[in-house]
C-alpha cells in the first residue's frame, strides 16, 4: 500500500478517520477533447477518504473502516467505470457523469455520504482524494449545502 501525505481539511470535529484503498479499474472519457483518454485504458486508482464527527457508535467506531471499503471497492474494483449508472452509461452527453478523476471523486463522496446519513452518530465525509496516475490527483470537498442534514 502506498502511503503519502494528504491535503488536510480544516474542521472542528473531535474525531477524524482516514481510509486508503486501491482500485483497479478501466475507463474512457467520451469526449473528443480528451485525446488519448477517449480510448479505453486502466488505472490503479489510489483513494483516500476522510470522515469526521463528534460521536462514536456503540462499537466505539466513528465508522467501520470496512464499510468504506465495501461501498467503493466492492462496487468498482476490476470493472469498467463507464458501465456503472453513476457514470452515464445511458446518457454520455453530460460531462458531469463522465468518469473523469473529478467525477469519480464526487461520485464516491455521494455514495459514502448517502450511507453515513443512515447512521445515528451522523459522521460526515469531508474529503475524497482520487489519484489516477503517479502524477495526477483530484481532491473533492463538499460544501455545507451538500449535506442533507443542513
Ligand atoms: N482534469 C482532468 N484531466 C485529465 C483527466 C481527468 O480525469 N481530469 N484524465 C486524463 C486521462 O484519463 C489520463 O488517464 C491521465 O492523464 P495524465 O495524468 O496526463 O497521464 P500521463 O501518464 O500521460 O501524465 P504524465 O504527465 O506523463 O505523468 C487526462 N487529463
Ligand atoms: Zn484515465
What does this structure look like?
This protein has 150 residues and is α+β, with helices and mostly antiparallel strands. The chain has a single domain (15-145), classed as Tetrahydropterin Synthase, Chain A (2-Layer Sandwich), CATH 3.30.479.10. The chain is 19% helix and 29% strand. The chain is built from 2 helices and 5 strands. The chain has helices at 65-76, 101-116, and strands at 15-27, 41-53, 79-80, 124-133, 136-140. The protein has a 5-stranded mixed β-sheet. The longest helix is centred in the C-terminal third of the chain and has 16 residues, at 101-116. It starts with 14 loop residues before the first strand and ends in a 10-residue tail after the last strand. The site of zinc ion (ZN) has 5 residues, from strand 2. It catalyses: 7,8-dihydroneopterin 3'-triphosphate + H2O = 6-carboxy-5,6,7,8-tetrahydropterin + triphosphate + acetaldehyde + 2 H(+).
SSE order and pairing:
Layout: E1 15-27, E2 41-53, H1 65-76, E3 79-80, H2 101-116, E4 124-133, E5 136-140
Parallel strand pairs: 1-3
Antiparallel strand pairs: 1-2, 2-4, 4-5
The structure holds the ligand Nc1nc2c(c(=O)[nH]1)N=C([C@H](O)[C@H](O)COP(=O)(O)OP(=O)(O)OP(=O)(O)O)CN2 and zinc ion.
Zinc ion binds at residues 27, 37, 41, 43, 132.
Give every kind of bound small molecule, once each: ligand LPXRUNBV, zinc ion
Specify the structural class.
alpha+beta
Question: Which architecture name does CATH use?
Answer: 2-Layer Sandwich
Terminus-to-terminus distance:
36 Å
Helix content: 10-25%
Count every helix, treating DSSP H or I runs of 4 or more residues as helices: 2
Strand order of the largest sheet: 3-1-2-4-5
CATH homology group:
6-pyruvoyl tetrahydropterin synthase/QueD
Beta-strand portion reads 25-35%
Q: Which consecutive residue ranges, at least 5 long each, have pLDDT under 50?
A: none
Give the biggest beta sheet: 5 strands, mixed
Summarize the helix and strand pattern as letters: EEHEHEE
**Mind telling me the C-alpha Rg?**
16 Å
Shape: elongated
Number of structural units classed as domains: 1
CATH class value: Alpha Beta
- The mean pLDDT is 93
Total number of strands: 5
Which fold name corresponds to the CATH topology? Answer: Tetrahydropterin Synthase, Chain A
Amino acid at each position: 500500500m502506498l502511503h503519502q501525505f494528504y491535503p488536510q481539511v480544516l474542521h472542528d470535529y473531535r474525531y477524524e478517520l482516514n481510509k486508503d484503498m486501491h482500485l483497479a479499474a478501466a475507463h474512457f472519457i467520451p469526449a473528443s477533447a480528451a485525446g488519448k483518454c477517449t480510448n479505453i485504458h486502466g488505472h490503479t486508482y489510489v483513494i483516500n477518504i476522510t470522515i469526521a464527527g463528534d460521536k462514536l457508535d456503540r462499537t466505539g467506531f466513528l465508522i467501520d473502516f470496512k464499510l468504506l471499503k465495501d461501498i467503493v471497492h466492492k462496487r468498482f474494483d476490476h470493472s469498467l467505470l463507464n458501465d456503472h449508472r453513476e457514470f452515464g452509461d445511458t446518457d454520455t452527453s453530460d460531462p458531469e457523469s463522465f468518469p473523469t478523476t473529478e467525477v469519480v471523486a464526487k461520485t464516491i463522496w455521494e455514495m459514502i455520504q448517502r450511507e453515513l446519513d443512515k447512521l445515528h452518530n451522523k459522521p460526515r465525509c469531508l474529503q475524497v482524494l482520487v489519484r489516477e496516475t503517479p502524477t495526477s490527483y483530484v481532491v473533492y470537498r463538499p460544501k455545507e449545502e451538500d449535506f442533507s442534514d443542513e
